[in-house]
Amino acid sequence: MSKRKLHSLPLSVLALLGVALAGVSASASASPPAGEKPSSPSSSATSDEVELICHTSDPADCYPKIFQPTHEFQIVHPDQDLPTGLHVRLNIYTGQKEAKINVPDEAVDPSLEGLPVDNSIVIVDPEDSSGSEKQQSQGQPLKPPKNAPAYDPHGKIKEPNMETAEAQDESSAFYKSLAILKKGLDIDQALDMLEEISHDIYYGLKIAEDYDTVRELFCLANSPSIISSSSSSSSSTSPSSGSTSSSSPETTETGGPSEKDLTRSRLAASIISSTVQNNPKALAEITKHWPTLQQDHCTKSKSSKDSGSELEPLQISAFRLLPSLPSSGSPSDSEPIPSIPPSLTKARISAISGLLKSPLIRQSFLAAGGMDHLLQVLLSDASQSQGQGAAEEWENLRRQAGHLILDNFLDADMGAVLGEWPGATGDVQASDKECASRAASRGDGEKEEGQADCWDWHAKQLADRYKKEGKGGEGHWSWELWNKLKEQRKNASSNKKDEL
Q: Which stretches does UniProt call biased (Basic and acidic residues) (predicted)?
């Protein structure tokens, strides 16, 4: 048996062999045991991921949900969670919150050294706070502060913006129209312009502030040649008192008002209606004029050539909606009553409805028999010669008159002042038999006017008539009018008994 000889290896070879063995050992220790899966790199990285808040699709706009502080101040977003123990400040220049890692022994900014530090809080009480609290505890309204402007419940009406050429032209045309109307010149174009612009609360107020303009409008809308049968005939024969104004009322060959005269009256009434509609300040201005205006007979009006001491003052003629009966008490072929188109009556009812929002004018309306005039409208019908269209127009007039009564006297939900009508002194109703007898006798003209003491009977007849025709019943304006009237009669009677 041969013997083998052992040879010693050089040191350099031994060193290389050691490095190789070490690498194999490290690889073996890093490999997982049999039966176990190696862990993925993503699972180890997940524990280090940071939840982000992204309001846009741009990744550059994202930021951590939990604020990551550093040793420098950084902006803290409103929806970030702020860890405790940080140094937080508010940047007075940007209004943003900033934070950084808090360093307790951090040196103070040299520019802040020596400045006084005060953590006290000062509470400033309003003047006369004790008095205000006392007023509140007693339920008294608070007094306005000193030098406060006067309270205006209607607010300030701003002037139109005159920067545009259109606004300037409109303003110029408005004031030119006022001048034309007051001078009694060719007023047709002026009335058209004022009727269009009077819906504006600023120009509506300017119309109401000018007494001469208001007077001319009232005289045009309530021309004696239209609402008084006796005046219509006299105006056609009486000569003009030296006036050549084109605004003077004209008459037809039969003595009735001309188409131009009726159109001017309708436009004037529409202007009055638009001026006071939803314009409390304009209504207040007309109320200021009313004590003087109601006494005027329009005999010196640029828009009227009617003259004579028998003409009615505006406190009566302003509320007369239909022509009055002739002096004989009944219409006749020799003395016809002028025909008024429904459009004019509609405009005048609308104007009266707006004016009745003034307590002073409302009292004048009741004193002048205004409810009697409204009853005339409710009882009037279109003649057969006027056709179906006129019948529908008169139907609309009756509804308009009914709503005027409800809104101003009977329905509190619509702003009516209850207790003014019915319930006035001496407002006693005749028996149903008496009222039926009057209605049956048409020759004396009492069915058309003078029926104040039969108001309730006529209201019931009107409601029954519409119900029989299939138009009325509960919810119809005639039904509301009759039931509200009964309710107010009952309340007025109860109040009278309580006073006794």
A: 430-454
Structure tokens at 270: 């529409």
Say how far apart CA 208 and CA 280 lie, in whole Å.
11
Residue 224 near residue 235 (C-beta atoms within 8 A) = yes
Do 210 and 313 sit in the same domain of this protein? yes
Domain range holding 294? 165-233+250-327+336-368
- With contact defined as beta carbons under 8 Å apart, do 264 and 341 qualify? no
Assign 3-class secondary structure to 360-379. HHHHHHHHCCHHHHHHHHHH
Of 368, 391, 424, at which residue does a domain stop?
368
Most confident of the following: 142-151, 351-360, 391-400: 351-360
How far out from the chain centre does Cα 320 lie? 30
**CA angle centred on 231, ends 249 and 187, rounded to 5°:** 15
Assigned domain for 160 exists? no
pLDDT at 203: 95
Instruction: Look at residue 203 and tell me if it is in a domain.
Output: yes
- Report the C-alpha gap between 414 and 420 in whole angstroms: 15
CB 209 within 8 A of CB 287: no
Residues 79 and 183 in one domain: no
**Any idea what the CATH number is for the domain that residue 300 is in?**
1.25.10
Give the pairing of strands 63-64 and 52-53. Answer: antiparallel
- Same domain (yes/no): 297, 227: yes
- Percent of the chain at pLDDT > 70 equals 67
288 three-state secondary structure: helix
Domain membership of residue 206 (yes or no) is: yes
Two tokens at 395?
């139907």
Give, in degrees to the nearest 5, the angle at Cα 304 between 218 and 270.
30
Q: Does 212 share its domain with 356? A: yes
Q: Is 259 exposed, middle or buried (0-12, 13-18, 19+ CB in 10 A)?
A: exposed
Residues 226, 361: one domain? yes
Average pLDDT value for the chain: 77
CB neighbours of residue 195 within 10 Å: 19
State the total domains in the chain: 2
- What span, in angstroms and rounded, lies between the C-alpha atoms of 478 and 482? 6
Q: Look at residues 195, 191, 307, 184 and name the one whose alpha carbon lies nearest to residue 247.
A: 184
| Statement to judge: residues 179 and 316 lie in one domain | yes
Separation of CA 125 from chain center: 39
Report the distance separating Cα 419 and Cα 496, nearest Å. 11
Q: Are residues 284 and 212 in the same domain?
A: yes
* C-alpha atoms less than 13 angstroms from C-alpha of 235 in its C-beta half-sphere: 29
Q: Which residue has the higher pLDDT, 388 or 252?
A: 388
> Per the domain annotation, does 394 fall within a domain?
no
User: Which tokens sit at 281?
Assistant: 């300040």
In the listed set 88, 104, 120, which residue is the last one of a domain according to the structure?
A: 104
Q: CA-CA distances (angstroms) from residue 252 to 84, 236, 247, 259, 390?
A: 98, 8, 15, 9, 21
Same domain, 76 and 171: no
Q: Which of 330, 329, 336 is nearest to 236 (CA)?
A: 336
